[in-house]
Amino acid sequence: MELVLGEEGAKRVLRYQLDTIEIKKPAKWDGLWRVVMFDIPEQKREGRNALGAKLKELGFYPLQKSAFILPYACKDEIDFIVELFELRPYVRMLIVKEIDIGLHLKQKFGV
């Protein structure tokens, strides 16, 4: 049996996936920080606001207004969110070994 979704149905499925997406915490931290940074134009404000809200919901810590950090692997999840909101040209993800506020962040995340 094959199920073909129309555009509206596909949007609902993606919306459901967005609402239920989560980032798993590993048993042992790998020592790397994931930083998501963005510079999204005003005409994409709705997507920018949705991205920031979703990052906070997923447990990211705001480093600055448009930069968030998390100590867990999350590339696939971030790629999905960025593609869903059509923000690929405006979003960058870094994997960082050291950060000047590392001690504070380790305490914040319990790693």
Automatic annotation (TrEMBL):
Transcriptional repressor PaaX-like central Cas2-like domain location:
27-98
| InterPro entries the UniProt entry points to | PaaX-like_central
> Which Pfam family, an example, fits this chain?
PaaX_M
Q: Which domain of life is it from?
A: Bacteria
Entry protein name = Transcriptional repressor PaaX-like central Cas2-like domain-containing protein
> What organism is the protein native to?
Candidatus Azambacteria bacterium RIFCSPLOWO2_01_FULL_46_25
